[in-house]
Write a structure and sequence with these properties.
Number of helices: 3
Structural class: alpha+beta
CATH architecture of one domain: 2-Layer Sandwich
Helix content: 25-40%
Strand content: over 45%
Largest sheet: 7 strands, antiparallel
Radius of gyration: 15 Å
CATH class of one domain: Alpha Beta
Strand order of the largest sheet: 1-7-6-5-4-3-2
Number of strands: 7
CATH superfamily of one domain: START domain
Distance between the termini: 34 Å
Order of helices and strands: EHHEEEEEEH
Shape: globular
């Protein structure tokens, strides 16, 4: 299984960083110009972007990538999977949160990926790693 991992320290408390990264709309800032929209709410009215929610990603009206939140442990961990994508056999995203101090949070983002065409996985992961590093740098300036 191919995977990548990105670590980024945020100068903010863990609850603030978790709140930021647990909202689908945040990824519009992090991964611009890619657009992200929630297309299915979770069953928890207090947390519409929680477990069971689905987001679409892409450009304009073309958003072929769908991700579903499969685990959400407040201030600790978020997991999601790509759903209904014929090019991807396995995709698991894991975002972990660790309070390093009252105003410092370490975020560890791990992605496992297995594309249908094996040689494609490493290429996709390299692009994702670059995008996540850039996106996290942008977000770290907003908290």
């Amino acid at each position: 299984m191919n995977s990548i991992q990105v670590k980024k320290e945020f100068n903010a408390p863990v609850d603030q960083v978790f709140d930021l990264l647990s909202k689908h709309a945040t990824y519009n800032v992090a991964f611009a110009p890619i657009q992200v929209e929630r297309v299915k709410d979770s069953s928890d009215p207090e947390r519409p972007d929680g477990v069971g929610s689905i987001r679409r990603m892409g450009f304009g009206p073309i958003k072929p990538l769908r991700e579903q939140i499969t685990l959400l442990e407040p201030n600790q961990r978020i997991e999601y999977q790509i759903v209904k994508n014929p090019l991807v056999k396995h995709h698991l995203g894991i975002i972990e949160f660790e309070a390093k101090a009252a105003d410092k949070t370490l975020v560890t983002y791990t992605i496992e990926l297995q594309a249908r065409a094996p040689f494609i996985s490493k290429l996709i992961l390299a692009q994702l790693k670059s995008a996540i590093k850039l996106g996290f740098s942008k977000l770290a300036k907003t908290v």
